[in-house]
Specification:
By secondary structure, this protein is mainly α. The protein has helices at residues 3-17, 24-35, 43-70, 75-104, 110-130, 145-155, 165-175, 180-205, 215-243, 246-266. Helix content is 76%, strand content 0%. The protein is globular, with a radius of gyration of 18 Å. The chain starts with a helix and ends with a helix.
């Protein structure tokens, strides 16, 4: 496949999957494996993730500005910021401790990724079915600190590729009585510091082997991921508020099963 076409496809895949509970990392790693695509230091993959993060910041720019301005005089706004930071902390500690193992072992095991996609799909289907009909929490910015921290601990499961960061946080939130739309929105808000820190740390750790020689490919992947992610973020909250998460569970099972079959056939 032509390099620019591959870059466009992977950028589209990143933008489509980063903020829904299907594991963008799992999709990118499996697609790269089957396409024979690899970039030194994962430069391409890291930079197109940055495109998705920037898309989320652009969608939430007004809300975040309002929140931080209100924090000067509003206890509720300050509590919302602290709540998100509490949820972010577990990923910092565990990510720093296990970064090398995650990147060098887990990320290089396509069968594990496919299996986790399938298992995560069944978990998502089950939790979507048993989620309370009358949730206790309907505002993503007003979760109790204890529940925010617990959701942050759930997020750490996503360090295993194929689990899905948004999937882990959403499942954790649903099990703690958070309404489906609010669970997705809290996942979005939490993803900004989490993904921002992860991308920055990846770039720093790989600074000596980063390869920006294929600038056009990286630029195309970044732009496609950015534009696609904007549409996904704007669409997904309304969708899950009306229909829940079952479609994403089935998506995971189908993609994971197809990948597992493909891996077994070529092994």
């Amino acid at each position: 496949m032509d390099n620019l076409l591959t870059a466009t496809f992977l950028g589209l895949l990143e933008g489509l999957t980063e903020f829904i509970p299907v594991s963008s990392t799992g999709h990118l790693l499996l697609a790269g494996h089957f396409l024979g695509f690899h970039s030194a230091g994962n430069t391409f993959e890291v930079v197109i993730q940055l495109g998705a993060i920037m898309a989320l910041f652009s969608v939430y720019a007004a809300k975040l500005t309002q929140l931080f301005l209100a924090a000067r005089h509003d206890d509720g706004a300050r509590r919302a910021i602290v709540s998100i930071l509490l949820a972010f902390l577990p990923a910092v500690g565990i990510g720093l401790l296990l970064h090398k193992f995650i990147k060098e072992v887990l990320f290089e095991t396509p069968v594990l990724i496919a299996v986790m996609l399938i298992l995560g799909g069944f978990v998502l289907l089950a939790v979507d079915r048993i989620a309370p009909k009358q949730p206790k929490h309907t505002d993503a910015l007003a979760l109790p600190f204890g529940k925010s921290l617990a959701i942050g601990l759930c997020q750490c499961l996503a360090m295993v590729p194929g689990v899905s960061r948004s999937g882990a946080t959403i499942v954790g939130a649903l099990l703690m009585g958070v309404e489906k739309r609010a669970a997705a929105e809290f996942s979005f808000l939490l993803s900004m510091p989490t993904m921002g820190a992860a991308v920055a740390y990846d770039l720093w750790k790989n600074r000596e082997v980063l390869d920006f020689s294929a600038v056009s490919d990286i630029a195309v992947g970044f732009a496609v991921a950015f534009v696609t992610a904007i549409f996904v973020v704007r669409w997904v909250l309304n969708y899950v508020g009306r229909h829940g998460y079952a479609v994403f569970g089935w998506w995971r099972i189908i993609v994971g099963s197809a990948a597992l079959v493909g891996l077994l056939l070529v092994s």
